[in-house]
Fold this sequence. Notes:
Blueprint: H1 2-22, E1 32-34, E2 37-39, H2 49-53, E3 62-64, E4 72-73, E5 86-88, E6 96-97, E7 110-112, E8 134-136, E9 158-160, E10 182-184, H3 195-198, E11 206-208, H4 221-233, H5 242-246, E12 249-250, E13 257-258
Parallel strand pairs: 2-3, 3-5, 4-6, 5-7, 7-8, 8-9, 9-10, 10-11
Antiparallel strand pairs: 1-2, 12-13
Amino acid sequence: MRSRMNIIISSGLLMTLLGSCGTSTSCPSGCSCNVNHTDCSDLNQLASLDSILDQLPFDASYLNLSNNNFTTVEPGSFSNFSDLLHLDLSRNLLSVVFPSSFSHLNKLQVLDLSENLLVRLPINLFSGLNSLTELVLRDNRLKELNPDQFKGLTELRRLDLSFNSLCSVPTHLLDGLQNLVWLSLMGNKLKTLQRTSLEPATALQQLLLDGNPWNCNCNLIPLKHWLEWIAYTGERGHLSKIFAYLSHLKHSDHQTNLNITQR
Length: 263
């Protein structure tokens, strides 16, 4: 009897130890941890991301870390959170990210990095995020994007690049994004936009372009003709309305009416 009891106790202890090695079930003070939903937003005293991640449930599918003071996402920071579907890092002070900052997040569907201080993104930052459907980069300080920045994001449907400092859209930036239906380039520093930059996004239905200092010259003529054709055929839903917008552009600074016409 004693021998059997020892085995049972030992087995229970073993299971406890194994469980503690593979998961975290605690919830830090100020956070809310309900089932698979973890919310650690608005804890402004938090400056180190890694210091809190080790205290969170690793089985969370939704993780809200917005409105804190995080400045850096170290490589592999979320390697224990392989079940994450939604990650919110908005309204922090992020200025440094690494190619493997979001590695192992194969199931991630939504990534919100809006309202941070990002100036440049590593080329492979989003590599491996094969399930991503929504990427929010709004309100950062991005000046340029690599043509391969979003390579491999074949499931992406919504891409928000609004209110950055982008001066151009690389020709191959949207290559492979055949499921992209919504794209915002509002509030950047775009003066022109090449038709070839948009053509790869064959499912695109909504395109937001206002708030840019457009230079309406011959460089926009190919885009104008392409959008005229879309407006005529109506083949892309809401995108057919973009031509009407581009035809009556108003410069946000000089309040000058700009018409895209052949000159």
